[in-house]
Request: fold
Amino acid sequence: MMDCIARVSRKPWSLPFTAEPEEVAALRRIMRLHLELWGLHGVVDAAQLCVSELVSNVIKHVGTGTPATLVVSMSGTRVRIEVHDADPRALPVLLDAVPDDESGRGMALVSATTDRWGVQLRADQKVTWCELPTELSCAEGHSGGARVNRVEALLSNYGCEPDRLWPAGVGAVAVVEEAAIDVIVDVLHWLRGHGRDSDEALDRAQIRFEAELE
Reply:
């Protein structure tokens, strides 16, 4: 489990859309962007699958062109994905689909991928939701562990406060990235100034980084 020394603000967001097949790819891209901004790279694929299935379910059972809304938030340490539509009668059903079935597998995939899912019925709409587990130990924690926390403190010495910049969007991420590059360049200068081979140090760091990702 990851600690919560450095915090990342993950505010809920929503996006109205029209339930059309061509909208699915755009919603998947938006989901990836937001989860990467939140530092939750490990759940991107599962979240994109859930978005595809929940939206496809609206298209198939409520109808193409249905006005709907995608809502994403944190539920404790889980990522919560909701799709709202205006038809409380067309309920998703978990079927025991076999591998050769061409339909009926959507909610089975969602069920297999998530910690839990369900449907909330309201007077004029329904909300189909699911929640994905993460490696976080708290909702505002980092997914990178102690190494990421150390870098957060280091970047603040370069006039950059990542916990304030991350929620601001792609431009803010570029600011943080430039500060991180400055740190790397300064370390390489330090190594060279002490008679060390900076290229060799980079190679060793890359090997260690890739090994820790496995």
Remarks:
- The radius of gyration is 21 Å.
- The CA atoms of residues 88 and 121 lie 6 Å apart.
- Confidence is low (pLDDT under 50) at residues 97-103.
- Helices lie at 23-37, 44-61, 106-113, 145-156, 162-165, 170-193, 198-213.
